[in-house]
Amino acid sequence: MTPSGRFTLEAGCWYALELMGEEFGPSLRAYSPVKVFGVQLFKDGSRRFDLDFFHANYPAGVQHKRYTIKTIERNRFFLLGGVDSPSVSRFVLLSPISADWLNEHFQIEVPQGEDVERFLERQQT
Fold first, then answer.
1. Which of 7, 20, 29, 60 could serve as 91's disulfide partner, Cβ 3.0–4.6 Å?
2. Helical residues (DSSP H) of 12-115, grouped into ranges
3. Is the distance from CB of 103 to CB of 88 less than 8 angstroms?
4. Residues of 41-67 as b/e, b for ≥16 C-beta within 10 angstroms?
5. pTM of the model
6. List of residues 6+ apart from 96 with CB closer than 8 A
7. Under 8 Å CB-to-CB from 84, ≥6 apart: which residues?
8. Among the listed ranges 42-46, 49-53, 54-58, 111-115, which one has the minimum average pLDDT value?
């Protein structure tokens, strides 16, 4: 989080990602831990940015992703945005990742007292 108190994505950190759109069928959602490689803001006042990231819930070989996202809402707990894509309507919700979130969506148990980001780094290698 920045001094302004708003949720901010930082390169090298892990986050909880929720993708929403009709492409996911009746469930409407897909979840993934993501590791941010970089964030590049557009300097035109459009509230858009490029997000370069590792998408852990994709098959090996296609896990490196780059989305252009337009911010819809950003507060101290999350960032909600629309993915800029001509072919599909998709929304993203990014928030801090936690052991509870990993357990809820993937039934992954992070050992008590272990840092979630360190745990994910070990799983990635």
1. 20
2. 99-106
3. no
4. eeeeeeebbebebbbbeeeeeebeeeb
5. 0.89
6. 7, 15, 16, 77
7. 48, 67, 68, 69, 70
8. 54-58
The predicted structure's pLDDT at residue 1: 46
Q: How far apart are CA 99 and CA 101, in angstroms?
A: 5
What span, in angstroms and rounded, lies between the C-alpha atoms of 37 and 16? 14
Pick the closest to residue 79 from 99, 51, 107 (CA basis): 51
Q: How far apart are CA 1 and CA 121, in angstroms?
A: 21
User: Greater confidence, 109 or 58?
Assistant: 109
Beta strand pairing call for 14-20 and 91-96: antiparallel
Average pLDDT, the chain: 90
pLDDT digits (tens, 9 = 90+) for 6-43: 999 999 999 999 999 887 777 788 899 999 999 999 99
